[in-house]
Amino acid sequence: MLPSFMVLMLTLGVRSVSLQAAAATNPSAEAHIHEVMNGLSRGSDLYKALSRGARGDGVHYPWMDEMKNNGIKKVKVSIDVAFDRHGRPKQMRIRSTEYFSHYDSDTPISDSERLNTIRAGGLERTLNDLALQRTAKGFWLDVPRPRPRPFVGGAQVEFLDDEWLPEPDAPMFYARAGGQSHR
After folding, report:
1. Average pLDDT of 16-44?
2. Sign of CA dihedral 8, 41, 162, 28
């Protein structure tokens, strides 16, 4: 499997060129991006993507405010996918939704009271629905050969609380063997 940084760069690369122009024409957006970069570790995937010019689309969504109000910087939604014989999603279901207080953290929020508050507010439902929509538009970098039977795998969709930070429109699919993820 490709390292996560390469996957991030591949999925963000297509959008990056046009979005760089949007952020570059907005000096306050660029200043904000540099402020965010100062708070990231230089080894993080997000720091590397931003330093190479990847930018968000600048469109602010209401769920971003909900994330900020809950102290959430990043959400990762993992989705199980059953594919048809052509490698297209046939059935999808949410496997897990994880919340993070920092952009470059690998440790999800685990406080059950805080998680219950987040879920009660409807943020999880909103982001899970969006994750399923994005996954329906996902892509394969390399379809496994021979195709596993059943042809199952998954995708991971990431949401950030900031419209100027890059997020892929569609996730990259990965295959699973024997019920185990390759990621």
Report:
1. 78
2. negative
